[in-house]
Design brief:
Layout (H helix, E strand, L loop, with lengths): L7 H16 L3 H13 L4 H21 L5 H19 L11 E8 L7 H12 L2 E7 L4 H11 L3 E5 L6 H13 L4 E4 L8 H5 L4 E3 L2 H12 L11 H4 L7 H7 L1 H15 L8 H24 L2 H17 L8 H10 L4 H19 L3
Parallel strand pairs: 1-2, 1-3, 3-4, 4-5
Helix pairs in contact: 1-2, 1-3, 2-4, 3-4, 3-5, 4-5, 5-9, 6-7, 11-13, 12-13, 12-15, 13-14, 13-16, 14-16, 15-16
Amino acid sequence: MTASKSDPVRTQALSARLWDAVREGDEYAAADVVLSAVDAGLDAESALLDVIAPAQAKAGTEWAANRISVTQEHTATAINDRVIAALAHHGPDETRRPRRGRVTVACVEGEWHALPARLLAETLRLRGRWVDFLGAHVPVPNLIDHLHRTRPDTLALSSSIPIRLPAAHAAIIASQAAGVPVMAGGAAFGPGGRYADRLGADAWAPDARTAAVRLEEILARPYVPPPAHEPLNDLPHLADQEYTLVTRTTHRLATAVLAALPERLPAMAGYNDRQRRHTAEDLVYVTEFLGAALYLDDAGLFTRFITWTAGILAARGVPAHSLAPALDLLAEQLTDFPRAVALLRDGHTALQAVSAAGW
């Protein structure tokens, strides 16, 4: 089956209607938008990728801009997931009968954003693949047990958040050792899929349609797994142990910074319990992203997160420069870790740039 084509004006209008229903929390209206369009001639793949996927992306954008709450974003995700399920069981039986090849689609251990992987799984089913969709947060041992039992042709591994990349690396190595090639996808793998390549994935795709094409390319040739190896073979800088030592003390580091932060950020004296809780959560995320950047030895991973966080804070009325004291305090905690200190310095520079831009 070839890639589907649709009228972009029509699908954009349908996606806007779907978003209106999703924003109101109206599951029945949301399903009606999609299923009625399919009954009127829209192909199911376009319904998935040109109507539902943009509506889901809209939910993330609206949350980041502080125009909807976390609960509204979660509601939108749940409704979109239910609409996908309704679509999967809508239409003639022959569209649901797998005809060739078997693919496992799974989210990396610790990754709870499962909708992108669900969209891929349903797209591959529409194209005649036998798909095992394992959903969110699949621990590596459970994933490998599944691969040994089912012997799929390919593993499609999804992750949206870069802090899950070490787990993705373990899954890639173990899957290849089991004789199963890995196609990576999701925002976690960086611009252009740079981290998929660095972690040794056999392929990377930016979206479900491209993934379907890449899958054909993988299956068109015999697979020769790489020799068995450990993460250190791919990322020799891990020998300095900075990643291991920082990630083992993430919560201790965040707690120490939180305790010292009021002296550097006097505005915290007026914080309520909710604001202090959010600050503590932000500090944990900063430390976890620092760990991910240490794992990949990639400053861009950390600076993109700092810039993104500054934008989130600005949308909520918190000046971006309020992050600077936290970065300073974290650097003071990590004076014996030169790579970590260098990454924090790069984060500071990125923060200064966005602060100068008026965030």
